[in-house]
């Protein structure tokens, strides 16, 4: 839901377009171009949009295919960083990384159990 938080920060409308595209893939790479044809000695701009709900390194290739020319291939390396889990107790914290303090337990006290909620925010299963 970080994408929607970014939209809120930029005061843009909330969107589910990426969520529909990503499904179980974990990452979506979308290419948008400003126009389909290029005049002589003209440049065009292409936008590369990446959305991920997992983490890791991803390598893909962008193929630019212009009729009657050999296709040009550009490598795209995407590094998705961030924790794959959230600790709801640590939300709205001023610290970058969550800190969990379980306190001091006396040796003479019996077993102490504490529950900590952990939410997997990635598209893949993880072991904690």
From TrEMBL:
Top-level taxon: Eukaryota
Listed transmembrane segments: none
An MF annotation (GO) of this entry: tubulin binding
Gene Ontology terms: cellular component: cilium; cytoplasm
Biological process according to GO: negative regulation of cell population proliferation
Designated name of the protein: Uncharacterized protein
Lineage, top ranks: Eukaryota, Metazoa, Ecdysozoa, Arthropoda, Hexapoda
């Amino acid at each position: 839901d970080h994408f929607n938080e970014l939209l809120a920060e930029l005061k843009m409308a909330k969107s589910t377009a990426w969520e529909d595209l990503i499904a179980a893939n974990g990452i979506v790479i979308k290419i948008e171009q400003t126009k389909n044809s290029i005049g002589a000695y003209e440049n065009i701009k292409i936008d590369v949009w990446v959305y991920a709900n997992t983490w890791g390194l991803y390598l893909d290739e962008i193929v630019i295919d212009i009729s009657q020319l050999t296709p040009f291939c550009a490598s795209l390396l995407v590094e998705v960083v961030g924790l794959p889990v959230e600790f709801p107790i640590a939300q709205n914290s001023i610290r970058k990384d969550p800190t969990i303090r379980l306190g001091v337990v006396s040796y003479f006290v019996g077993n102490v159990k504490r529950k900590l909620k952990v939410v997997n925010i990635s598209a893949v299963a993880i072991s904690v």
